[in-house]
From TrEMBL:
It comes from the Bacteria. Keywords: Membrane, Transmembrane, Transmembrane helix. The chain crosses the membrane at residues 82-100, 120-141, 177-196, 211-229, 241-260, 280-300. Pfam families: HAAS. This is Integral membrane protein. The keyword Nuclease does not apply.
Amino acid sequence: MDLLERYLAAVQQELPADKQQDVTRELKANILDQLDALREQTPEQSDEEHVLHVLHELGPPKQMAYQFHPPQPLIRAELIPLFRFTLFMVLGIIFLINVVESTLLWLGHDQMGLLLLLKHMGSGFIGDATLAFTGITLGFWSMSKEQKNRCQQLPNWDPSKLPQLSQKWQRIELSDIFTDLATYLFLLILIWYPAWGEVQSSLSLTEQSRFILQVFSPVLLLGIANNLWQLSQRNWTPALLKANLLLNAFMVIAILLLAFTGPLITDVPERLYWLDADQLHRSITISLLILALFPGWEVIRDGRRLLQLKK
């Protein structure tokens, strides 16, 4: 039985002091019962062989101790939904701020290409996101260390206000909301930055293209308002779907107008990299037509979803 005592001692070391005696007593009684049953089944084997068989089936001492006293997570389970929501909200705001800062820097420097823009945006977001993640995690860890359950301090909720969710797709992801917000902010800055300061670039939008974009700027502002509305609701409703459908329809119209009303950019050099001026304009037109497919697909998707909710 020396092996059994060694096993119990090893399990005991993995347990908190206030649970060691009770768990050891219960585990020892369980093992002895298994040994008695095993002796009746295989009387030809020795006691040492019986003990080895039982302990092998039970597993390592640390694994056995975890069954009686599971390790405490860094953040308590009831705080995980609030932790996830807070993390996504903060990271989304950081992402929007980095998009705005990087876009302004890109428009203000002629020698900063698109790859440098993406690099600046990515490195800035990663640095800020790492700091935010560390701070939020430490904050929720300190909340988890408290004995009092803070989740129970929330105001009483009203069951009659539960949303009607009949489809799996009705939940709006935070990542989709903040991606759309970043896109709208990027386009607004791109359109109106020349009104704030001179853009140091050899390529610039034509007056006709800029006029079309400025005319459709209120659509971008409505898009931002729509995203904030989605953020407050977090579930697709018929009203939200109709608003999103109209916004995407206007986006398709704006992109198609840009594609078919003449050159998008002016002051084009005779050759840019491996493209001449005509090839560049044609490539931009094709790119705009491909770009129009994305909001066009969302128009079709939202129309189908509206029909599903009406059934």
